[in-house]
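Bench notes, bay 3.
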Amino acid sequence: MKLDLGHKVISFDDDIIDLGLNTKAWNGGEECLIRDLENQGPLPSCLIINERYGALSMALPIEKGVSLFDSAYYKTKSEHNYRMNNAQERIQSKGIMDDISGNYSAIVISPPKEISLLQHYITLGLYHLHDNDYLYIPFMDKHMSKAHIQLFESFCDEVFVSKGYKKGRYLRGVKKNSLKKKPLLQYTKTTYRNIEVINSEGVFASGRIDRGTQYLLDNLHIIPYSHRVLDLACGDGILGMSYKKEHSDCTIDFADASQFALDSTQLSLKANGLEARHLYWSSSYDAIPNENKYDLILLNPPYHMGNSKTTQIAIQMMEESYHHLKDKGELWVIANNHLGYDRHLFRQYSHCQVKLKNNKYHILMARKER
């Protein structure tokens, strides 16, 4: 099997994968699960939830599979890798909030960082699992806690913890009871500066407003009026909604790689009586038409991808923003001081300023000038 990771094509027997994202295409827990399942023969069907790059679903001994993604980034990369390995007929990709039907012979969940989101994935998986068939969750040892095992035991019987393999292992169990209704997402609500925010599980800073966002919101008055606006990596949408409340005649788009985030943005817009021109499920600008040009782009870029940290996605967003700005259009970025994004902006934009700074965050403005 070959995988295209954006800058490097690898084979499945590579031991350590450097993606430039401080992450891997698979881990020891997944290898442990694949090794044990291969000894049992092929499974007729499998539902895979939250995988990365498609390596897991392609390596599993399954006849047919459906892979569910919250991340547009990982969905796009996985679909490319399915095609590269002629696996697109065997494995179908869908968004985590898309409708799926039927039951499966196995469910495999790549665990997210947030345990509340893992609970949703478990209940979603069990809802689509045949009685007496297995749910599997592969972990790296350093990421599996007693709380994870207790959560698994609360939903599953015949719980089995595998032996360790390459610093990973997996949990296996059958569902305790048939779930009669599809599980619903849990939401939290918070209010900041007269904006009501509704967050689903898995959205960054769910149930609170992170301090970087607060810093930009508290100083939103320094950003001049613009007509055509994009809130990129919008999360729950509070930056764009706050700007829209201040400038009601502007038109605004929202974009995020997370389907959960866009669901939260849509609910938050409705709660505040606001409308968006368009919502894009997009990793950076992948799903945004090339002809879309903006007077203003607001960006609180992602720094975490699951259990990993990376600046690569943020740098890509800042670079690609240049091509989606009108002449004289401005990109405003809020970020931690230590990440050094100002250096990247100064290299690409002829006019760039640190507009405000405290001991942890800075607000950057870059203007496109020809």
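Next record in the batch:
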Amino acid sequence: MPEGLDLDVTTGARDQDLTGRFGTVRVELGSGDLFLTRAQARALSGRIDTGDVQVQGSVPAVRITGKPGEVDAALDALTAEVLTSSTTGDVQVLVPYDETRYDTTALSDTGEAQVSAPAAGAPAPRLTAVTETAGVVVRVR
């Protein structure tokens, strides 16, 4: 597949492992884990009903909805936003160690919410991480 193409992934019950350079990646997973590793993409968005999400690489905008389990994002560059939530698992967002400051919201109904990324007011890249029953960690790598 040529580099830089937009990618739409829809599956009922299967893990998805994506590596490479993409345009915009859109996913709709009924049940299964999503691994976007060693990747570059303009954006990642989608809905996951049951499964974990792992993102590693240069993805400036990440927006995952639905009811994923654990969400783990280790980002090389963040210029837009990370918006993710989990019903039952931990949410961890690791951002680059640089001069960037973040507009961060970390919420957990029953777990611990930790933020150690540099804070800033708007306009700044926005991090929103929410979980209902586990912990949230937002920190520099």
